[in-house]
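Let's practice the habit of predicting before peeking. Look at the sequence and jot down your guess about where helices and strands might fall. Then scroll down.
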Amino acid sequence: MKKLMLGNEAVARGLFEAGCSFVSSYPGTPSTEITECAARYAEIYAEWAPNEKVAMESAFGACLAGKRSFCGMKHVGLNVAADPLFTIAYTGVNGGMVIGVADDPGMHSSQNEQDSRHYARAAKIPMLEPADSAEAIAFTKEAYEISERFDTPVLLKMCTRVSHSQSVVEPGERVEKSRSYEKNPQKYIMMPGNAKRRHPVVEERTRALLEWAETWEGNRLEAGESNDMGFITSSTSYQYVKEAFGDRYPVLKLGMIWPMPKKKILDFAASVKKLVVVEELDSFIEEHARNLGLDPVGKDVFSPIGEFSQNLVKELLGEEVPQGKALEENIPQRPPVMCAGCPHRGLFYTLAKNKITVMGDIGCYTLGAVPPLAALDTTICMGASVSGLHGFVKALEGSADSKTVGVIGDSTFMHSGITGLVNASYNASNATVIILDNSITGMTGHQQNPTTGMNLKGEPAAAVNLEELCRAVGIRRVRVVDPYDLKETEEAVKEELAAAEPSVIISRRPCALLKYVKHRGPIAVDTEKCRSCKACMKIGYPAISMENGKAKIDNTLCTGCGVCAQLCKFGAL
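Done guessing? Here is the structure:
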């Protein structure tokens, strides 16, 4: 029976139908829902790993045991997993192994918009790229067949628009697949002698894949009414081309983005008068075409920055684009803000108030960078706050010790903050690290992590004790504060910054959006006492505004956290 299915949900369905039995991932938008949906199938063991490297290594272990496995991540997560990626390209697999990676053109929820296709070429691993939910199912299943036929892990590349859009699919049945494990040191132990013998195997595999790509039906030619122009494209760019031009011009739609066919591309180019490559971000397909001696229209017309649209494709190729109706009035800007009742707000207010230099990290708390708090100085990647803090205070030889901190969420700390803290402890930097423990992985939609005491399926699990962990790596000064208590928070920050050794403050309060969190009800405003000083506005709380010169509380938003009341010197709140 046909149904509408989200792209990520379709990948999970493909995992189920292909007989995948092991999934390990780290949540990262826009890839998160693949693993969440896979966990709904009783036949699939699914877990959240502490980070993407662990997830990939775990998935490899499962495939080594003979089971079909999967690990999923967003594009920057593939950077974290790059170490095992390049080596399992040499070892190959036993059971099929598929690696899902979701790119984010336009940076809707990312700190860069890197193009993951380069990893396929660099690691010499095949990559499939579905353009809709139906292909997401089909290509996921095909990826396992390729993996086992060619003895290779396979990359499955999604992107925001394919991951988070719906299209019609026709679900199938599950087919169980597994293999037995046999010890094979020459294949799986990558010491130099064995690795040298495996490299030629990889090169021969690429040649075999290239030959197969010429005839694979996923690289398909769609005829057009005129050969004046022809498009080579893939993924969501294919959808834009088809929406913009329909069947007017022929299209070579690439489903396997690496290795790309040669003869098929040359034959297609010879059949059209003008060759156009449409692809978001880098000139990956275009460079391949140029290496074949072709001269297509590509990044000389289409930008390597951001997302495309059907109208953009038409406009850049000289087509008339219908103009939409413009709004008569300017829409006010709505910058992102931390949620009402967010426990991070009080901590960031304290840091900004005391003019502390703050090394930031990846999480919803990155919103502490926007006005009026404007509390962050840097945000680079997962775990960089702790490591960067160590380098910053060491480089300034003590002059920044008492006015610099790093902030990192509980999930991010488990992902890659621990090693940075080990470094600070081992190399004795006078660094103060603040772990923002909101008891969940907040930014990607409330996934469990090793500190929460629950696993992906919501079952009880061992919980990492952050206080004991920090002490175990050599930090003697570890304390816990409630960020709703501004006085306690400020005292802790000042005391730990004044200490002549590394320290950790755990700012602990559950995310206000968690279903089990009980709120005490909205704050009331005594307009007689309000002096219009706007001190309560300094925390950037979305429930507070000014009306007729007085503070006003939006009762539909206010959680009653009480932080604003602590700022009012006149008792108006």
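How did you do? The domain at 518-573 is CATH 3.30.70.20 (Alpha-Beta Plaits).
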